[in-house]
Write a structure and sequence with these properties.
Largest sheet: 8 strands, mixed
Strand content: 15-25%
Strand order of the largest sheet: 3-4-2-5-6-7-8-10
Number of strands: 10
CATH architecture: 3-Layer(aba) Sandwich
């Protein structure tokens, strides 16, 4: 699994800004720090959780949707995947946007309200019905970014990379950093698929 520790892809620009280099390092260091030792490679769920955390660090939500100091950033999961849930629970208490992360499981669409980040672990959630809610949706389901998700995790040549649907991020009122966009293996500008579920 050591190949998954590489950053998602060299940026396509002629130069690397300090911010871009930090983003690449943040992904790698987040993964390396997971097991406590450099020798203990994390499992794929831990790698995915580290990616999700770093995606969130490079995302801006509308100010009105951010929690106050006494609240928390809601990291939600749709779909049963116990190892992933355990990895996300390990993020609880870490600071994101200056407030602690709180994990919770959602089972249906109306429970998504209030989520800041939503990892979709299995098919069955109608993305088109999120209605532009300011939710950073992430999944490793095939074709996720092309079907209306914001960030899709993709396994390619033994490494974990990601695709971004910039159009859906904008529709949700989210601002993704230019450096995060430049690290994506592809950027899609399409709208959400209008029928069916993810």
């Amino acid at each position: 699994m050591s190949s998954a520790l590489s950053p998602p892809r060299p940026i396509r620009r002629a130069h690397r800004s300090g911010w871009t280099a930090r983003m690449a390092c943040a992904v790698v260091l987040g993964v390396l720090g997971w097991g406590g030792t450099a020798e203990a490679a994390p499992d794929e769920s831990a790698v995915q959780a580290a990616f999700v955390l770093n995606f969130a660090k490079f995302t801006e939500w509308p100010p009105a949707t951010l929690p106050g100091r006494q609240a928390a950033m809601q990291l939600c999961q749709f779909g049963a995947r116990d190892e992933l849930a355990q990895a996300f629970r390990a993020l609880e208490g870490r600071l994101l946007q200056g407030v602690p992360i709180q994990w919770r499981k959602v089972n249906k669409l109306d429970e998504v309200r209030g989520c800041h980040v939503l990892f979709i672990a299995e098919a069955g959630l109608p993305l088109a019905q999120l209605g532009g809610q300011p939710v950073l949706t992430v999944s490793d389901l095939p074709g996720f970014a092309q079907q209306g998700g914001v960030i899709g995790l993709v396994r390619q040549s033994g490494r974990l990379r990601f695709e971004i649907n910039r159009g859906m991020a904008q529709a949700a009122g989210l601002r993704l950093s230019a450096d995060l966009l430049s690290l994506a293996m592809s950027v899609v500008d399409g709208a959400v698929r209008r029928e069916g579920t993810m």
